[in-house]
Amino acid sequence: MPDANKSSRPDARSPLGVPCPREPQVDLDKRKSAIGSRGHAPAALDSDERYSLYRATVGFRPRLSRVVYGIIAIIVVGTVSRAAEPPVTARDLPPFPAVEPANAPATLKLRPGVRADLVAAEPLVASPVAAAFDEDARLYVVEMRDYPHPEQHDQRLGRIRLLFDDNDDGVYDRATVFAKDLGWPTAVICWDGGVFIACTPDILYLKDTDNDGVADVRKVAFTGLAAGSPRLNVQALANAFNWGLDNRIH
User: Fold this and answer.
1) Measured between alpha carbons, how far is 74 from 241 in angstroms, rounded to an integer?
2) Cα(199)–Cα(238) distance, rounded to whole angstroms?
3) Is the bond into 95 cis (omega within 30 degrees of 0)?
4) Of 181, 182, 178, nearest to 201 (Cα)?
5) Predicted local confidence at residue 226, as pLDDT
6) Cα–chain-centroid distance for residue 140?
7) Among 39, 100, 207, 243, which residue's beta carbon has the most beta carbons within 10 A?
């Protein structure tokens, strides 16, 4: 019978035509007793034995694998670096005319049995990014009026609008500026007659206690969002609150 420790292909070549040297003989009992708990070839074996042991344990040649993956990486990177940007014409991105708010629902494609109604539009709201209904069907709307200009964050142009449906017809009739002077507000959720607002780096709690539609309570409930960031990314701010099954706001 042939010796299992000898290479059956002394002149073998890799798929790339690189000659594969004959593998040195390794004592199988020595190999079993020498392998550590992590499966590495210990330093007790000489370099040729460790090389053969590694191939017998893992199933490939480390040096050859580096060559193969290196060539593949060069081909991929080279292909990506030479790829040209596809041309874009007006036919690919046709302009769409502005649609009046009253006509906007007709432009939507809805499933059978689903209806879309316009409940609020300019001038009641502007630049809305989040909204929440309270127990009285009032609607709190986050207006991020400083988007997408980072330099306007310190100008604190964001605000919260509170919308009222006075005749209970499902369409909002008037609005108040519930809170203003907010830098990049992004989320709102109702709680205990007021609202939590995500306004990086703070989470604010706002409440109207005299029923004039304007918050007269303003507290910082939490701070530290994006703390230490040298430059805020408006796309990566806190974007929602959710009421969890554990009765907590996440």
Assistant:
1) 45
2) 8
3) no
4) 182
5) 80
6) 26
7) 207
pLDDT grade for 9, boundaries at 50, 70 and 90 = very low
**DSSP for 144-157?**
-TTTT-GGGGGG--
The per-residue pLDDT for range 93-145, each reduced to its tens digit, is 777 788 999 999 999 999 999 999 999 999 999 999 999 999 999 999 999 88
Tell me how crowded residue 190 is: count the other CB atoms within 10 A of its CB: 17
Structure tokens given for 73 = 């990486």
Residues in the chain: 250
More confident residue, 35 or 88: 88
What's the rounded Cα separation, in Å, for the pair 65 and 124? 65
Phi and psi for 119 in degrees, rounded to 5? -110, -20
pTM surpassing 0.90? Answer: no
3-state secondary structure of 16: coil
Q: Encode burial over 219-243: b for 16+ CB neighbours within 10 A, e otherwise.
A: eeeeeebeeeeeebeeeebbeebee
Give yes or no for a contact between 187 and 140, defined as CB atoms under 8 angstroms apart. Answer: no
Tokens of 168: 């209970």
What pLDDT score was predicted for residue 25? 53
For the chain, how far is it from start to end, CA to CA, in angstroms? 69
**Mean predicted confidence (pLDDT) in 221-246:** 82
**Is the confidence at residue 215, as pLDDT, over 50?**
yes
47-58 and 62-82 helices, crossing angle to 10°: 70
Residue 24, pLDDT above cutoff 70: no
Owner of token pair 């007790």: 44
Please give the Cα distance from 204 to 181 (Å, whole number).
Answer: 12
